[in-house]
């Protein structure tokens, strides 16, 4: 067994290979998070699909990803982190191929759900490779490089996505993953294998299934309500809630639960995740409808719609690190209050965007203000959720917070069109889209402001030691510019039973 202090250096060829594999692997999933939203109007046009299909195109992916992402990390610990990472890459790539070849909306939705399963293996797996491969004293640096370089993929996404949609077509936003995956798999051949040799017990597959089924039923009820009738939708929603209750009962009784409910005894952890639901629900709603408004309402092409929101990504790239450092000095309450309120002002400014609006006069000020607000709260939100639990629980704290953000977006995408009266084929009409988007801007701004007010009431003035004097965990992902979710953070850094490939077998 190799001594714990051994491992790779970020400056070594092997270290650079691990970083490249992890960054490119997670970058595929990050690219899909920015590209698919931009392509939705063209997908609807190409497949002749109603709005519900576009909602499911996003939600099928988020449903399986949110339901299984906590399980994905555990699989890597048990069966080998490199092995599960490779499984995730292959699964994600095959699902991407199915998405690109989908003959109709139903096939695309199924393929997107399968893609989310691959993402649940791939996303935590890429971070696990970093955490398990590098020397203890270099892990924080490696995680920071993984986070920062991953931001390059996110910033590049709007350019690539818009060009692909306007050029060879929307199917290529999925097919582009195939050559990327080949590069990742070649790089992964030189990545050392590692696992937790003390891991034992069964996986909580039943808990993961109940969580996904509950979310799926509630999502179906919200999306299908305009066409299936209130009675049917209500019955499905009630069924989803009952399955959710069964999930809670299961997690309380399971020996190794996917979601240990004891972590919610921390009022700060519970409050931070509640704020996360508000903030990322607003983000998910506006990023679902804004590309539709820009393309179907204002007549932008996909490339123009993609780069229209680029200021948000650039601001988060530049300001998320300083905002996190500021929160460490002054405490999380002020950034988590001011940030959402500023972002809410940006969402209100989007209310002015209508057919005939100019980009620099109307769209740019709105996304600029929104980006400033988001830059203020994303890093402090992660710092707060990590500080709410013991250092040894950093991985689960980050995973739950990441899943909460995705669940919030899942529900927002499902509920928002119903709330604003946009359904069936109305998203193709500039008049209908413009009226509905104006209502959506108000609702999303209100949800964002609610998160800011809740932060003022519930967040502490400073992040101090935990009860008993335990130290507060600090984020290692200092730069983060993904708008779809908070960053994943590694656990306590222990690598029990790490072995070289020749020893691990």
From TrEMBL:
The chain crosses the membrane at residues 18-40, 52-72, 84-103, 109-130, 142-164, 170-191, 203-223, 229-249, 270-290, 302-327, 334-351, 363-391, 403-420, 440-466. Residues 491-505 have a biased composition (Basic and acidic residues). It holds the Pfam family MFS_1. Residues 18-463 form the Major facilitator superfamily (MFS) profile domain. Its main location: membrane. Keywords: Antibiotic resistance, Cell membrane, Membrane, Transmembrane, Transmembrane helix, Transport. This is MFS transporter. The lineage of its organism: Bacteria, Bacillati, Actinomycetota, Actinomycetes, Kitasatosporales.
